[in-house]
């Protein structure tokens, strides 16, 4: 079946019915997720004259799911309050069905609009113009990773700590499929894409980066600051490539380096 908005809605509602039958979500959660999918995938003609309201509803619903404020999700705890090193904050790993549904609903939609976007890609900065697009994205990615980790060390957030997290396979699959995909689809695929024409490159990068940092402020204000700079790098990659796969890959690689080689999630 070709990827269309109609096929996405059918797939999402099939998944919601399956999760209901398995007892992982309650009816209220399924209803909330169904409305969320309709807000995203329904044709713009249904929202004629109310596009701003549609966007506001999208961000309200996204924030509620992202911050686990919607009742009726039976998220599965893999482990709770585990210290990956003696000097690290305790960390808990959950299989979050609320964030998983963000990823499932948003990723196909953004891949579709990325693919069908006929606008010319923006010109690369002069120091990158000699490279192919993939190589330019690699250079921006390396610079982002270097800047974020230098900042994290300078702020006293991390030390060197080589290890594999407990339940490593589940940890990294969950990080990619749930955390990284959901966050990139919201902050880059929707927020950045929707505001770029109004705010310009640096305006939208700063706004999306600040929101991205705010989501991570529960760890600490300094952790949020480092997250803002990470968000700027993810945003640059998406701006120049206009393909959500690039910031997803960068985000996952940065998080994986953090988890394997540095204090995770941060020093206590």
What does this structure look like?
- It contains 8 helices and 2 strands, in the order αααββααααα.
- 66% of the residues lie in helices and 4% in strands.
- The chain has one domain (5-261).
- α5 runs antiparallel to α7 and α6 (168-215) crosses α7 (221-241).
- The model has no long low-confidence stretch (mean pLDDT 94).
- The chain is mainly alpha-helical and 268 residues long.
What characteristics describe this protein?
globular; mainly alpha; 4% strand; 268 residues; two-stranded antiparallel sheet
Task: Give the helix/strand layout.
Elements: H1 5-22, H2 27-41, H3 51-66, E1 76-82, E2 91-95, H4 97-116, H5 133-154, H6 168-215, H7 221-241, H8 245-261
Antiparallel strand pairs: 1-2
Helix pairs in contact: 1-2, 1-4, 2-3, 2-4, 4-6, 5-7, 5-8, 6-7, 6-8, 7-8
